[in-house]
Amino acid sequence: MSKAAKYSTMAILLIPIGIAINYVGGQIALIL
Question: Positive or negative CA dihedral for 16, 19, 25, 31?
Answer without folding.
Answer: negative
